[in-house]
């Protein structure tokens, strides 16, 4: 394992993702919001990850989600940044803006503020899109992680996103 400041379990899972996708002949991209690059950082901790990890988009603001990933302002205004519709559009955008075979998007509320009754701190939405898959086959999920601090929410979200990058996971 590399010498890293990242949590060991994050780097170990990233290593599994790189190995499994290399074996499957797949390249990956990520579109991150609340994780702020944590998934990309974990993947790039792995030596040789460049033959699997194609691109990472950190789109923290709605304007950047729209500009870089082509998420429609209508989707953002109607459903909000933390929604299945937005995560799905982010994943689709990461595929379109890269040459990756699979993309995972993460958007959520890491805290300590920003939550609401409908979407409390710890609410994170994930989506995975695969090149060539039917566009109506939405693979997305909203999770509610324990609010154990901003770093804890971000770590839980990054681990979940990495799991979605494993071939055969849904």
From TrEMBL:
Residues 12-166 form the CinA C-terminal domain. It comes from the Bacteria. This is CinA family protein. It comes from Sphingobium soli.
